[in-house]
Amino acid sequence: MATYDLLARHYDAVTGDSSTETAFIDSIIKRAHGQAVTLLEVACGTGGIIAPLAGRYRVSGLDISPGMLAVARKKLPEGTPLHLADMSCFNLNVKFDAIICVYHGINHLLDFSAWENFFGCAYRHLNDGGVLVFDTYTASSLKMMASIPGTVQRFSDNYLHIRVRTSDEVVFDWSIEVLELQPDGRYKSLTEVIRTVSFPPEKIRESLGERFINIVTIESDGGVNDDSEDRTWFVCSKPGGALGAQPCPVDLRRHHRDPKGNHRPRPRPVA
């Protein structure tokens, strides 16, 4: 069973409304590539981002969890391409105007060589002038989350418990447990342990610079609460295109804040 298959049916109830995130991503794409028509979301999960974008773009999704894709298929337009694949090694034989990877999916590639493989896959699957948008957890935010006892969230009649721990401040283990209410009134425990890492922004920019141009970073704290997760967004373009790649405007280089402070336990699997 792939990671997240066990929790897929509860994922949307736990993560809540994605409208703020979706609007932010849409604004980035429009400013960086105003003529984008086709869009691929890598590590798309249950389709919470691409479903509302399906009215503006011809969307496709990619994920390694069959269970998550099964949920996504129910909310997306019929015929939407959904690919079961590893984000660090995929070949879809089709190109896109925009590729996104959100909710820090890339942090679940544990070696930087795998990050570079993802960058290479994205480059090969972008049309000339296409834009790549992704976000990452910062090392400081992972350390902060590892310093607190954990979080407990109730959703419907169920409970979610998340605890982040590290032994070396390099690899961070997310222990995720859902207590699922059963018909007999007892609770069933569904558990996953997901591993994440982070790399310095300078290292990421240097690697992107080997292929992409117009590289912009956008600092983001992801919420308004004290336990919110700090993230850095990267926006970059593949060279070429009729109009040439457009740099992301200065007014997007500000803090993006989710006014609802949603905490999203979304460590995405890649293998």
Folded structure, characterized:
This protein has 271 residues and is of the alpha/beta class. The chain folds into two domains: 8-138 and 199-252, Rossmann fold (3-Layer(aba) Sandwich), CATH 3.40.50; 142-195, N-terminal domain of TfIIb, CATH 2.20.25. Helix content is 24%, strand content 31%. The protein is built from seven helices and eleven strands. The chain has helices at residues 8-15, 19-32, 50-53, 66-75, 112-124, 139-146, 201-208, and strands at residues 38-42, 58-63, 82-84, 96-101, 126-137, 151-155, 158-166, 171-181, 187-197, 213-220, 231-237. It has a seven-stranded mixed sheet with strand order 3-2-1-4-5-11-10, with helices on both faces. A four-stranded antiparallel sheet has the order 6-7-8-9. The protein is globular. The termini are close together. Mean pLDDT is 87; it is low at 221-229 and 253-271.
How would you summarize the topology of this molecule?
Elements: H1 8-15, H2 19-32, E1 38-42, H3 50-53, E2 58-63, H4 66-75, E3 82-84, E4 96-101, H5 112-124, E5 126-137, H6 139-146, E6 151-155, E7 158-166, E8 171-181, E9 187-197, H7 201-208, E10 213-220, E11 231-237
Parallel strand pairs: 1-2, 1-4, 2-3, 4-5
Antiparallel strand pairs: 5-11, 6-7, 7-8, 8-9, 10-11
